[in-house]
Design goal:
The protein has 266 residues and is an alpha/beta fold. It folds into 2 domains: 3-98 and 209-262, Rossmann fold; 100-207, Rossmann fold, CATH 3.40.50. It is 45% helix and 17% strand. It has helices at 14-23, 45-61, 72-77, 79-90, 100-109, 121-126, 128-136, 150-155, 164-171, 192-198, 208-221, 223-226, 244-254; strands at 3-8, 29-33, 64-69, 95-97, 114-119, 141-146, 180-183, 204-205, 235-239, 260-262. Helix 5 crosses helix 7 (128-136). 46% of the residues are buried.
C-alpha cells in the first residue's frame, strides 16, 4: 500500500502536514524537508524545478502515491511543469498537488474584493496567486508583497528576532486597504500571530486548515488514489539537513517528538 508525501524546502511545511494529519489521521505519511538548500524563494525557476523534481522522485521511490507540495515557491514555479511533463513520462498514475489554489479559492469564497499576498520573491514574481484568483473572479484586486527576509529569519530558529517587527512593518505598508492577507508561504504560519498583530484587524488566511480540507475533498473525489493508501497512522520524517533548530521548532509544530533521517537528493 502507498503513502502520502509532503514536501517543503524546510520545516515550514510541517504546518500543512499537521493540518492534513489532523483531518486525515488514518493514513501513512512521509515528510521531506530540503533544509540544506532552503530557502527556495530567491532561486531561479530552473533550479526550483530541478530541486522539486528531485524531491518528488525521492518520495515516489519511497512509496508515495500522492504528494502535496507544501511549499508555495515550488507550487508556483514547478508544479505545472511537474504535472504536465514529469509525471506523464515517469509516474503517469501518481499525482502531485500544490497549496496555491486552495488558498486562492478560500479568499474568493469569502467574497473579498481586495486581497494582499505575502510570499517569497519567486512566488510573487511568478504571479501565481494573482493568476489563480483572477481565474475565479477577475474583479478582485490583488496586492502582492515579496518578503525575502522572513524565511531566513524563521529558519534561523529565532522568531523573536529583534528586527522582525521592523521587517513586518515595512512589508505590510501596502496592505492598509486590503480586506484579507493570504500567507503565501507555509513558513509564515509559524509567525502568524506576529503578522496578525502587525496588521491589526485585517483577516489573515493561512494554509494548513484550508489545504487539509481541500485535500480531504480531493481524496473523496478520487477513490482510485484513496483506495491505494495504507492506513497505519504512521509518519516518517526526512531532511537534507538535520539541525537542533529543525527538530526543536518542528516538534512545536507537530506536537510530538521528531525522529528525522538525513538524506541526499540527486
Amino acid at each position: 500500500m502507498s503513502k502520502i508525501g509532503i514536501f517543503d524546502s524546510g520545516f515550514g511545511g510541517l504546518t500543512v502536514l499537521s493540518g492534513i494529519r489532523k483531518a486525515l489521521p488514518q493514513y501513512d505519511y512521509l515528510y521531506l524537508g530540503d533544509s540544506a538548500r532552503a530557502p527556495y524563494g530567491s532561486r531561479s525557476q530552473e533550479i526550483i524545478y530541478e530541486f522539486t523534481k528531485q524531491a518528488v522522485d525521492f518520495l515516489f521511490k519511497k512509496g508515495c502515491e500522492i504528494i502535496v507540495l507544501a511549499c508555495n515557491t515550488a507550487s508556483s514555479e514547478a508544479l505545472r511543469k511537474i504535472q504536465q511533463e514529469y509525471l506523464l513520462t515517469h509516474y503517469p498514475k501518481k499525482r502531485v498537488l500544490g497549496v496555491v489554489i486552495p488558498a486562492c479559492e478560500a479568499a474568493v469564497e469569502k467574497g473579498y474584493k481586495k486581497v494582499g499576498i505575502m510570499a517569497t520573491t519567486s512566488t510573487i514574481q511568478s504571479g501565481s496567486y494573482e493568476r489563480e484568483i483572477k481565474k475565479l473572479n477577475k474583479d478582485i484586486v490583488v496586492v502582492g508583497q515579496s518578503c525575502p527576509l522572513l524565511v531566513p529569519i524563521i529558519e534561523s530558529g529565532d522568531i523573536s528576532f529583534d528586527l522582525l517587527p521592523i521587517v513586518l512593518k515595512d512589508y505590510i505598508k501596502n496592505f492598509l486597504d486590503v480586506e484579507a492577507i493570504i500567507l503565501g508561504c507555509t513558513h509564515y504560519e509559524i509567525i502568524e500571530k506576529k503578522i496578525a498583530d502587525s496588521v491589526n484587524n485585517i483577516p489573515v488566511i493561512s494554509q494548513s486548515a484550508i489545504v487539509a480540507d481541500k485535500f480531504k475533498d480531493y481524496l473523496r473525489r478520487h477513490k482510485e488514489i484513496e483506495n491505494k493508501l495504507s492506513r497505519n497512522e504512521s509518519i516518517k520524517y526526512y531532511s537534507t539537513d538535520i539541525t537542533d533548530k529543525f527538530k526543536r521548532f518542528g516538534e512545536k509544530i507537530v506536537g510530538e517528538k521528531l525522529e528525522v533521517e538525513k538524506v541526499e537528493l540527486i
